[in-house]
Inverse folding.
């Protein structure tokens, strides 16, 4: 009886699989149809005339694979060598894969023309790590080959026991750009079950009760694990992972996070989409209603209607429509064969959408920055609402015992800058579907009542010369203002970073003339190479304190004292004149200093400083972030002065390098001093291990008595850092809470440096480091009082260890092999 039942269920699964294969091919363009068909061929044999060849030792072969007419035709169309039968003959012990499966949005309502194809390669357990490394290398080569046809295919290696014996494989599945590490487990398998397509190999036993004890296992089926009872502990990690994925594809992540929220709202009687799909299969319903992505939307819709949350529901509908890529206002010959067309047309009619809204959504490849920013803000707000709802749900549960706390910290750190409400962070603009954000003309307005600058994408001639504060607020709310900041340098930097401003963009500012427009265009050209060439962010960067990788001082963007100067620039170089205290009147030729900086976490910021001490304040602001910078740090000066550009550049560059050198030299027990004359005053710049402070020097004190003076730390007697390991001082960074841990016999020393660099030293008896980190992480996530800063500003954990006799600070939980990986 059990065998008959299994055979019947296998038949239903295979019938659904054949329908999905037909659906995916009906939507793909002709070339991509052939590429999709040859995916299993590339993994079933290793022929020298096929892509991805490494050497004959690379494992290949798929259980039960044979050539089909579709594969034969695809090889002919793609000019690929068709392997002979001998190339496909393997004894059972030589076959590398149990099966090859596409999963995700492929063959569903979510299959956009730009969607990638995620392929799981479930490999045989006998393969060695060396053999798996060869397969991984081959997968990389195959991904590159498919990309040549503008077809994105990603491969993932999966052990058949990976979900059943999860802890055995955690260390092999490192968190990365495409892999969720330990942040989700059963939820990932549930997504695979509800969406997969078998391209070759064994049929997956994904139906309910397939994994029950007492049922005879069919060797022709692949059993990956039971998902019918999803653990509550997994929802939090999965939501963090989806938020991280949302940095690139927020519309897709929003749907998945809301599904998690929907599942959580039903817990513990959660009805999985996998179960719904199978129920329709048993009813012989293989229509478009039996679709994983459509069911995902319908479950979210029912949940939000139950919450009377029509605001979120409207954005969800737009995400679902845009994800499908079906354009109702632009029907083509190809759309006539799209199996989803009738259903989506019916849904849109049901939603009451206007023709104008549909046209706007279909025009998404040409959305300008204002439209993109509005939609991005809606997505971000909704993602955070869902995250907080899931956080509330998870606070009543335990964190997953599978999830490594170091991965929790990495994900939170990556999300920190993106979701921060800090006005000084330059937020990246997700282009979503838009092909370009470039603008020919950009206009700036300054409002005295708010002391802020506002950016428009229209030419000045199309914008009212003056507006009331209420009218300005309306322009902001209506999206006519696409960005605002407290200084104009931030507007220009944001525009350059997000591709709005290029070297050919024409700038203007309301109420200002041609000279101002030229200055903004000049600043744009200077910032382009700085903001567009950025280093990779690795796991090491995210698990260590931030430091600056690029610092740009932008001077005289606003009031420009050099415009009043009538002399010749040669005088400055010849006479070695001081641009900070020039002439009889001792004029400071700098009126303002803006700092545009990139830290090692990948966050851009912009700050402005005004007045005679603006330069000192700017240096004091950046200097601690330069202490841990390496010799690759990019220190730049952009002078927007009408005159004296070169002398200002030369002297500021020299001063900045001097300060950088002094900061590198200071130790825990000394203070280095450098003096500088600004206007009529002399200032001492005092550098110690916690940064730089400045103060005026009495004019009666001789210059040579204070220049380059080395002082003992005056506050050393009361210095809380005096009794801690000096190496900790090399790691302190403003704005982040840090724990430095040292294990001694039955004692755990804990040095805590808070966001303002205040130190606390504690001792814990009979507590090990791992338990302490897990307890503190859990407390920080779920204790609202500890979330004083950003929701995602998690503390960082380090342990102190002696290596070859030298005390070393090591990020907690990550190996050296992991830390070099991009993230």
């Amino acid at each position: 009886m059990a065998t008959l039942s299994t055979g019947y269920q296998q038949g239903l699964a295979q019938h659904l699989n054949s329908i999905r294969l037909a659906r995916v091919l009906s939507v793909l363009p002709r070339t991509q149809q052939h590429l999709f068909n040859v995916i299993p061929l590339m993994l079933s044999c290793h022929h020298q005339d096929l892509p991805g060849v490494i050497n004959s030792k690379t494992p290949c072969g798929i259980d039960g694979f044979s050539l089909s007419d579709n594969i034969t035709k695809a090889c002919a169309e793609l000019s690929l060598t068709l392997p002979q039968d001998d190339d496909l003959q393997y004894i059972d012990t030589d076959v590398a894969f149990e099966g090859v499966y596409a999963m995700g949005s492929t063959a569903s309502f979510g299959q956009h023309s730009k969607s990638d194809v995620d392929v799981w390669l479930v490999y045989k357990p006998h393969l060695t790590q060396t053999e798996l490394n060869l397969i991984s290398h081959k997968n990389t080569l195959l991904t590159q080959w498919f990309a040549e046809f503008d077809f994105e295919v990603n491969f993932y290696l999966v052990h058949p026991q990976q979900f059943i014996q999860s802890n055995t494989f955690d260390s092999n599945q490192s968190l990365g750009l495409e892999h969720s590490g330990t942040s989700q487990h059963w939820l990932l398998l549930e997504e695979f079950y509800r969406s997969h397509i078998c391209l070759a190999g064994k049929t997956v036993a994904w139906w309910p009760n397939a994994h029950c004890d007492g049922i005879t296992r069919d060797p022709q089926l692949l059993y990956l694990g039971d998902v019918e009872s999803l653990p509550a502990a997994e929802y939090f990690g999965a939501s963090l992972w989806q938020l991280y994925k949302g940095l690139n594809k927020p519309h897709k992540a929003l749907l998945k996070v809301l599904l998690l929220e929907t599942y959580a709202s039903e817990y513990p009687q959660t009805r999985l989409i996998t179960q719904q799909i199978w129920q329709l299969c048993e009813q012989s319903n293989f229509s478009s209603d039996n679709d994983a992505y459509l069911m995902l939307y319908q479950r979210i819709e029912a949940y939000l209607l139950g919450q009377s949350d029509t605001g979120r529901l409207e954005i969800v509908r737009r995400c679902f429509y845009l994800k499908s890529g079906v354009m109702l206002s632009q029907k083509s010959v190809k759309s006539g064969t799209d199996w989803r067309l009738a259903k989506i047309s019916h849904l849109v009619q049901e939603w009451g959408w206007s023709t104008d809204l549909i046209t706007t959504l279909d025009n998404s490849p040409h959305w300008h920055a204002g439209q993109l920013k509005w939609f991005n803000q809606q997505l971000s707000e909704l993602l955070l609402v869902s995250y907080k709802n899931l956080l509330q749900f998870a606070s009543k549960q335990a964190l997953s015992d599978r999830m490594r706390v170091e991965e929790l910290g990495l994900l939170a750190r990556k999300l920190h800058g993106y979701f921060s409400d800090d006005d000084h962070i330059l937020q990246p603009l997700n282009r979503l579907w838009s092909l370009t954000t470039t603008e020919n003309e950009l206009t700036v307005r300054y409002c005295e009542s708010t002391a802020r600058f506002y950016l428009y994408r229209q030419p000045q001639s199309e914008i009212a010369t003056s507006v009331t504060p209420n009218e300005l607020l309306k322009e902001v709310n209506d999206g006519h203002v696409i960005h605002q900041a407290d200084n104009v340098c931030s507007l220009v930097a944001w525009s350059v970073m997000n591709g709005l401003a290029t070297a050919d963009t024409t700038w203007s500012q309301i109420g200002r003339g041609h000279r101002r427009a030229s200055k903004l265009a000049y600043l744009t050209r200077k910032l382009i190479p700085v903001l567009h060439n950025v280093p990779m962010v690795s796991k090491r960067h995210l698990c260590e304190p931030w430091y600056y990788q690029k610092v740009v001082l932008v001077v005289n963007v606003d009031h420009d004292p050099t415009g009043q100067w009538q002399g010749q620039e040669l005088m400055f170089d010849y006479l070695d004149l001081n641009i900070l205290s020039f002439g009889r009147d001792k004029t400071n030729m700098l009126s303002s200093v803006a700092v545009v900086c990139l830290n090692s976490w990948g966050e851009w910021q912009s700050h402005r400083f005004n007045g005679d001490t603006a330069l000192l304040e700017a240096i004091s602001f950046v200097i601690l972030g330069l202490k841990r910078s390496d010799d690759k740090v990019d220190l730049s000066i952009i002078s927007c002065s009408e005159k004296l550009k070169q002398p200002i550049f030369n002297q500021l560059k020299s001063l900045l390098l001097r300060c950088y050198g002094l900061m590198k030299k200071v130790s825990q027990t000394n203070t280095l001093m450098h003096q500088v004359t600004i206007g009529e005053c002399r200032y001492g710049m005092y550098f110690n291990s916690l940064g730089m402070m400045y103060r005026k020097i009495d004019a009666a004190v001789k210059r040579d008595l204070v220049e380059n003076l080395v002082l003992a730390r005056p506050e050393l007697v009361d210095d809380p850092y005096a009794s801690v390991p000096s190496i900790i001082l090399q790691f302190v960074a403003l704005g982040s809470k840090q724990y430095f841990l040292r294990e001694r016999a039955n004692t755990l020393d804990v040095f805590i440096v808070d966001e303002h660099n205040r130190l606390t030293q504690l001792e814990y008896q009979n507590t090990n480091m791992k338990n302490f980190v897990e307890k503190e992480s859990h407390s920080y996530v779920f204790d609202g009082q500890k979330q004083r800063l950003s929701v995602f500003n998690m503390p960082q954990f380090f342990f102190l260890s002696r290596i070859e006799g030298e005390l070393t600070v090591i990020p907690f939980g990550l190996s050296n092999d992991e830390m070099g990986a991009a993230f």
